[in-house]
Model the fold of this input.
Amino acid sequence: MSGQRRRPQTSILSSACDTNRRPLHPWNLSIEETRETPSSQLIFGRWADRAVVLKTFKPHSDETNSADVIRSFDGKGMVRVIDRCEGALLLERLVPGTSLVDLALAGDDKSATGILAQVIETMDSPPPPSRCPSVEDWGRAFDRYLQGSNESIAKALVEEAQRTYLSLCESQTRRRLLHGDLHHANVLFDATRGWLAIDPKGVVGEVEYEIGAALRNPIDHPELYASTKIVKRRLDRFEETLKLDRHRALRWAFAQAVLSAIWSTEDGEDSRHVLKLAEVLRRF
Done:
């Protein structure tokens, strides 16, 4: 969970309370560290002599169904939920918790890609939880953008990506529960269990969809992903391990890059890096 902003302990503790200021969680933790992400607040500590992470969700978080998603994977390539209550999850803590970002930045992108592929392979085919969104649901953002007044992303590019996305949605074959945001920062190393995924969004679609996030990360380092050579090398490894349809994975990755840019624009974030990748993928 690297790259997250640290926050005072009191802000995390207060967010884990209801409107009457009663604790929502029944756990008495020995607190070691607190952090914040765009969608959640985290307490790292110990509970019953076990290393844990207490995760509470911010209003309008896109991870509120993550407990059901994590439990669906049942520890297969995924961090485990220890306990839960309204608004909070108690998770096993991955130690030392080194992310794949560090491996990629150290110049070993080949190994990082191989680990991502192995995690995806391990996460194969659990039953999706009820109310889990589909890739079709996520694709509604194309219409939302096209019907709005924002023109920071060329409408012609968005329309092309939407056509590609809808065509892929209609022709999917083996659909399964996917992580939905499986990239380098969301795969951590645990000394006991190995490399594991964290922070799933949860979406139902074919495995070729899952590759998109991995191809556009580490997001702040386009020199590591936005080139034909790197995309080809990464796809070679994913195809070898997962036996996926390479052409469909490429088309999903292009459409998702534009979709990701739309979401970034809606959140007031910079989308230039991911749009650079979209242009690279468009030329394959």
Confidence is low (pLDDT under 50) at residues 1-24.
